[in-house]
Structure formats: C-alpha cells, structure tokens
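Give me structure tokens for this 570-residue protein.
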Amino acid sequence: MARTFLLRAASCGLMAAAAGIAAAQVVIGGISFADRAAQGDITLGVFDGGIAVINLDADGFPDVVIGDRSTRNDRLLHNEPDPDNPGQRIFVDATAGSGLNDADGLAREGDGVIVFDYDNDGDDDIFFTGVQASPLSSGLLYRNDGGTFVNVSVAAGVRIADFRAHAAAVGDYDLDGDNDLMLGGPNSVPLRLLRNNGDGTFSSAQGLIPPLGTPNALYSGLWMDYDSDGWLDFVALMNQTTSALLHNVSDGAGGRTFVNVAPDIGFTNLGSAPMGLAAGDYDGDGDFDIALSNASTGSYYRNDGGVFTRLELVTSVWGWGTNWIDVDNDGDVDLYMAGSYPFVNEDRLFRNDGGGVFADIHSALNTQPYESRFSVRVDFNNDGRDDVLVNNPGPPVHFASVYENVSSTPGHWLKVRLVGDGLRVNPEAAGAVIRLTAGGVEQVRLVADGSSTTATEDLRQHFGLGAATAVDQIEVLWPRSGPLASRTEVFEGPLAADQIITLSPQVLVGDMNCDGAVNVLDINPFVLAIGDVAAYAAAYPDCARENADIDDDGQVNVLDINAFVALLGG
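Here you go.
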C-alpha cells in the first residue's frame, strides 16, 4: 500500500498578482502574453544555441543558462529584481568568473543545454551538446562547485571519441538514485547510453540499446514511463521519419535492457523531420500523451493504456521546441510550439478546451515571426502563471525572447518542487510522477529533464486549479527501486492554493514493515530481509527490501546489522 503523510510542506506563499495588459495586445479568452524582450523590458542577449532553467543560488527564482553556437560564449543569467520597476524581474549576466567558456569549451559549439545534478552534491551541473563539423568530439559537462563551474567532460567520461553529441536527456533508468545520460549523435550514429556510476563518472551502457537500423540524427529525447510499470522508457525523435520508443524491461538476470516497441504500440508515422517533444496528460485520463513538432503539421499521440493514436495539429510551420503549459490555470494543459528555424514563422499556442480539443490562439502570444528553435516553460517571476523563454537562432539577429504570461484568467494554482535524497532518489526526482487532486479533479505531471528540444524546463511542476482554492491530496511515485507501492507516497491536504511547495521522499530507512516508524517491530522483518529475500518479499509485498541497506553501500547484507542496531538505539 502507498505511504500516507499529512501535508505540511513549507511554501513561499506567493499569491498571483494581477498583471496589466497593454491596450494594443491581443487577448483571447483572457489569455495574453507580452514579448518583454521585443518591448525592451528584459534583455537576455544575442544567442543561437540552447536554453535551460538552472538554480544558481537557491533564492527561489529560476535562473537561465544559454548556449551560443556562433561565438561559443555560453552565458549564465541570474534572475534579479528590476531596480527600476519594483515587483518586476530582470536577468543579469553572471558568466564572468563562473568557469564557463574555458579553453576546451570555447573549442566546441554550445548547442542544446540540459541541467542536472550528476554528482548528487545538491547543486545544478550543466551539460552542453554540440553539432560542429570539426573532428573534435563534443559534449561538455561542467560540475558546479559552489557556484564555480569546472569542466569535467573527460574525467567524468562523457567525452566520447569521434562522437558529436547532438541531443541529450537525463533519467535514472536503473533506479539506483543517480541520473543517467542518453545521447544522440548526427546521422548514421547510434544512440549512446551512459550509466552514472555514482562516483562522479559515467560508463557506457551501449549494449542495452537494440539495433535501430540506420539511425538519423537524434533531435529530441525524453525519459518517461509510457506504460506505468514504474520504469523509465526512452522516446527518441530522429530526423526524417525514423524514431523509437525504447521499453525498459528486465534482462532476466537482475538488470535492465531496452526493446523498441514503437511499431507495436502505434508510435509511428511521426511526419517529416520530427524535432521537439513533450509528455503531458492533455485528455485527463491519467497517463502521459506525447506532443511533437515536425516540418509539416505537428502531432500529438493519445496514450490509451500504453497504446498510442496519432492526431494532427494543423500548424503549417516547421516546429521545434514543444511544451505542455497550462496558460490559463484552468486545470488542463495547453500546448506551445516554437517555429520555425530555418524559416521565419510565428510560434504556435494551442488552447485545450478541457475535452482534449485544441484551438490555435497564437495571436495571443503578441510576438513577431522569428526563426525560433529552443524553448522552455518557466514561471520566471513566480506569479503563478507559466511563461515561455525562446531562443531565436535565425538571422538577421540571434536573440532570446521572454514571453511573459499576463493572462487575466482567474484560475488558482499550485507548484510542486520535488527534491530527491541523492541516495535512493536522484536529486531532481527526474522521472517522478505527481498526481494532484483538487476539487474532485485529478491531474498528473511528469518531471522530465531534456525534453522540448534538448532543454531543461522549470522542473517545478505547475498545476492550474481553476476555481479550487485548496488541494486535497498529492501522490508522488518516486523513481527509486522497490515495489511500486513502496515507491508511492501520499501527502494529504488540505493545502491552500496559490503557493510553491517542496516535497521530498519520506520513506524511512530501516522501516522494514512499512508502518511509518523505525522501532522494535522492524527487527523480525529486518532479519528476514537480510537472510531470506523471497520470504521477505512474500511477507511484506508492498515494502522495499532496500530499506535494510542501513549503511548505504548499495547492498543489503550482514554489514547492515550494526547500523540497524545503532538506528534503533537512536
């Protein structure tokens, strides 16, 4: 059975403030965005690479890292109060002295960007992909050492000889508590899976990836549990029409391996040049559907119990970045698509009517046609309305846009930030599934790192609540080993709306009977877990034997006995 806790999470108590909408702006059903970069209110800079959300200083406001292929000068941008406009936010260049753009980094183009804590030390590290045609192997990993970034690409094992990382996504495929890295290269280069060893290094797990014929370049990848079996699968969008859905299955010997099931479950006919993707539950049935952009129509795939049905969005643009975003806080996710490098077009915004039918309301973005490519969903000013940051790499000017959500729709909201313990749950809780119930309506979100088009979105999961003023319950399926029931924790409300909360795993190490406490009642099940694996699983089917690993060495054995005795003694 799932573990249940009274929800008393700390929050920042941020109430959404009404935002003014310029008279000339288009407003559709209360929805409107302001192009702050075009208006000169916020300047991110001139770039033509990827974009990702990062946490530089734990001040509660999301910062940004942007790659630049042209100048190879990547940038860190710190989110700060606007000294000239009280209550507003701006981004200030914080690159100087950060350690980025060292000699090795300057020799490689920073293209896509993902942010994750690869070494489980509590701060955000940065990985850049690169697509330059030189013989240099690409892939840049910068370790965050207290705000200074150190290039550890070679030492960490992510620099693969003669391999140019084209796209990347992170997820804990083996549920060992740290994030692994899937990389895609250019045409005719197979996917590369790098397993995180937990000691600051990665090693190849290439043998787990099945042959995919002659692969095209990977433009986007996404770790998600498409069939709800508790293990992260991998969705691969490759250029032209070749793509894959790699099902994470047991290898029969205690490990994991992958099988391409795309042809069997309807994840086919992706259209010409699929580029960006995102996972979200647009129809409210509790599983994750897939949206993708391509060179023609754009599509979304409805997930019905692990079988997909393709539906088209008429976009008439070559789309890239793809983001599910509840723009009006009404409780169903809408869809944003950046478009369309290498052509000039307006980005697209599709409003979900609550029944899974989308209407194109892109004029409410109030922006101009650009050559857009990379995009992320982020509430940069913490006002309870998700915004969009977009990089526009096309000529005549490469620059980044800030589309602030200034909608007047009245819906309430809640943001949930998950923080793993870095031991059994990876620090970002990438791959976690959150189910929130408010006003009798359940919503589900996936913590995904590397979706859209090789980007890190705001990993705080945003829930529009509509008229509901309180949340009844939050259920989290943590990405960790053990039976599904032992990984699921239920946080009971009521919890007031319009705030940001943080949740962490609550399961107690040493709680061998899953009663929520560590005491003498755990002695017998602990002894059973040490001595008879099958008997423990039979007697406590909903509990995780891994909780007996008291000394945290990755193994359950007699070496845990002294630590368990000490734990009981307090």
